Amino acid sequence: MSGFEALIEDVRHALQEPSAAPTHTHGADGVAASADKSDLTARFVQELEKVSARCFSAYAEVAAWEQVAKVAVGPLPVWQQRVRIADTRPVAVADGITIDAEKLRKQLESRGISTFRPGLTAEIDRSEFQRRLAKCGVGVVEADYAIASTGTLVVTATAARPRSFSLVPEVSVVLVRRNRVVIDLATSLSMLGAERVRNSPVVLITGPSRTADIEKRIVLGVHGPRDLLVILLPPQ
Asked: Nearest 5°: phi and psi at 73?
């Protein structure tokens, strides 16, 4: 057994909850079989809502893009949205894993919503990158996996999918495929594989940013996003 496999086993034993975890089987890619997917997804949504996050289930990618646009414009009546769009802060769109980020970007741009996508941006220095990202009100990333037992999202970062996109904007929108919902952290790490875990920063997101430093009261959004919206996409 390799050191990475031993680590996975240690994590699995530490987090094991025989009475709470639904039974499931795994296919060749390590993703739970479809017979158990509805149970895992339901549990993920339940745990997600416990940590003050929201969830939207999209029947197709176009419905997901529509929801992102609504978040960017804000909860205003239709007759007011044309006025609000001009003042909308840019949306930071990271490259996807299974989705076509360019389609999402074009959908937003067609509505008059400006976007910031690192994959399409010419080389800029770090300070300019941070300045542009700081102006974005919404950050959109696609998660590698979602963990049902804790409502956690697992996101590996790359140059085209900076971890800052899910940490800096006030509102974080995370997309994830239904067939990428797994039971626990050990399973997600195992499916990522040793090489990716070793070479890519891994961000674990469980609800909006929160702190209890101020008079021991839970406050959202002090050190990161104040709002987290997870959009469940159909299996690919």
From this structure: -75, -35
